[in-house]
Amino acid sequence: MRILITGADGALGRAVLAVLPPEASAVAFDARFTAPMPPHVQVIEGDARNPELVAHALDAVDTVLHLAPLTVSVGDGCSAVDEASRGTYALTTTALDAGVRRFVFGSSLALFDRLPARWEVSETWRPRPEPHIEHLRPWLAELSAREAVRDSDASAICLRFGLPVDEAAAASAPYDGRWVHLEDAVAGVRRSLELDLPGWSVFHITAAGPHAKVRRAAAGREPFGYQPRHDFAASRNASPPQEHAPSLSADAVLRSVAPIPSRPIRNVVIFGAGGPLAAAAAEDLSSTYTLRLTDLQSIEEIAVAGPNLNQNPGAPVPVPLGAPHECRIVDVTSPEQVMAACEGMDAIINCTVIRPELEGAFRVNTVGAYNVVRAAVAHGIRRIVHTGPQLAALHGGVDYSTDYDVAAEAPPRPGRHLYGHSKYLGQEICRVFADYYDLEIPVLLFCEFVTPEMEQPLPLNPFAVSWQDAARAIRRAVEVAHLPEPFEVLNVNADLPHGKFTNRKAKEILGWQPLNSLQHMWSSGD
Q1: Domain residue limits, the chain
Q2: Which of 32, 60, 68, 92 could make an SS bond with 7 (beta carbons 3.0 to 4.6 A apart)?
Q3: Which ranges in 438-466 belong to alpha helices (H)?
Q4: Rounded distance, CA 442 to CA 433, Å?
Q5: Calpha distance 80→245 (Å, rounded)
C-alpha cells in the first residue's frame, strides 16, 4: 500500500504515520510542516487546490487519507471554505482520474454539537452544522467527497471523529464528552484502511462507554467493528459534575439559534447584475424597488458590450439605471466588497455564476455564497433569493436523468459536474445559515432560458423557461410573505407536457405561474 495523507502535519496525521505497517509507504501532504517527518516518509508541501501538484503527489499512490479539513486553517474564512471545498474536489477527482480506488475522508462529530447527549445519534442522522468554519470545513469537504466518488467504483469511507486528545491534553482540561482518544482515532483509521467496502460509507469514531456525547453505533458493528479502549473515566471523575440541561423537545432543540426578524423590503441588492437573468429581473423590479446593481465589471461596460455570445439569442442585456437606483463594481469573492454592497439593503438577489473554470467556479459559486450570507447576517437581512442550476440531471447514471416527475425536493446529485458541484456546496452553505439564523432563502433552480419570440434550437429542454417568467419568479421570491421552511429549493420551468420535472412547489409556495407555455417549441402545430 502506498498512501497519501493530507493534513499530515496535524496531530492525527502524524499519529497515523507513526503506526503505519512496515510494508506501507507514505506521502505526507500539507500546506506547511512544523516539524520533521520520519525519514521514510515522502514530504510534499503545497496546496491541495492545485491539481498539478496533487497529481505529482499521487504518483504510485493507491490509497488517499484526506485529513486536511480537520486541521486549523491559517487563512480567513473565505480561504478555509475554498480549501475545504475546492481542495477536496481537486484532490478526489484528480485521484480518481489517476486510478485511485480507496479513499478515507476525515470529518467531524462536531456537526452534531447542537443535539443533546441523551439523543442516540447514529450514522443515519443528518448532521446539523453551525455556520462556523470549524463546522463548515469538514461538512463541505464531506459533501464534496461524497459527490465526487458517487459515480465511481471506489471504496470511500468517511470517518466522523470526536475531538481527538492525548493523555496530556485530557489531564490538563475539564472533561468533554466530545473527546476521543488519539489512539482510538488512529485505530479507526487503521480499521478503515483494512476494509474494501463498496461505495460510500460513514462511521462515527467516538470514545468508549456511555458518557460519550455521540456513542458508538454502526462503527461498532460488523463489518467495521470499531472497539475504542478509552472512556476518560479519570478525567470525568476529576471534573465537577455538570448541571443537566432542561429537557427540550426535538423541535425546540432544532429551531433557529439566533433568528433574524423580517422587515419591509424596499431596497434590493443584486449580485451578478450584468448577467441576463439578473438583467431580466432588474427590468421587472425597477419600478417597485430601489435597486443596487453590482457586478465584477461596470454595468455600463457590460451594456455597451452587448449580449454574451455564450447566451441564447435574445438574452436580456443589463441597462444602467439612474437615481434612485445605483450601479457598483463588486467582486463577490471579496467579503469586504460584499459587506459594503449589502449595507442599507432589505433583500439580496444572488445571480453570480462561473461555470467551466475550477478556481473561479468555487470562488464565485461557493465562497461567494458564503460571503453573501455572512453579509446578510451582519446587516440583519432575512430575505436572500439564491439562484443556480437544477442539480437533478447533470451527470447521468448517479442522478435522476431516467426518472419522471422529478420534484425540487429531490436530493441534489451534482456528482463531479464542476458547475453543479460548486453551486451545490454554495447552496449548502446557505442552508446552514438559514437553519441557524432563521433566514428566508428561496433557491430558484433553472436550466435553459428561451426567448419565446425567437426561433430556438430543438429539442426544447424539459427544464426550459422564458426569461420573462424567470424574472417573475424572482419577483415572487422577493415578495412572498412567508416560506414554509427557512431554506426552500424551487424548480422554475415552464408548464411543459414532458412529465420530466415538476414546478408544483414554486407555484404553491411563491404563487408563481409561468405565462409562456412555449407550445410552439414543443408542438409542430399541425
Answers
A1: 2-238, 267-522
A2: 68
A3: none
A4: 13
A5: 33
Name the CATH superfamily, with its identifier, for domain 2-238: NAD(P)-binding Rossmann-like Domain (3.40.50.720)
Q: How far is CA 380 from the centre of its chain?
A: 23
- Decide if 117 contacts 155 (C-beta within 8 A): no
The Cα 174–Cα 171 span in angstroms is: 8
Give backbone dihedrals phi and psi of 348, rounded to 5 degrees, phi first. -130, 140
C-alpha grid cell, residue 251: 423541535
Element (H, E) at 13: helix 11-18
Predicted confidence band at 341 (pLDDT cuts at 50, 70, 90)?
very high
CA-CA distance, 425 to 422, in Å (whole number)? 5
Q: What is the pLDDT of residue 310?
A: 57
Q: Which three cell numbers stand for residue 420?
A: 453543479
Helix axes 276-285, 467-479, angle to 10 degrees: 60
Q: Identify the burial level of 123 via C-beta atoms within 10 angstroms of its C-beta, where 0-12 means exposed, 13-18 middle and 19 or more buried.
A: middle
Strand ranges in 206-331 using DSSP code E only, listed in sequence order: 267-271, 290-295, 326-329
Q: Domain 267-522 falls in which CATH fold?
A: Rossmann fold (3.40.50)
| pLDDT for residue 486 is more than 80 | yes
pLDDT band, residue 164 (cuts 50/70/90): very high
Q: What's this model's pTM, rounded to 2 decimal places?
A: 0.95
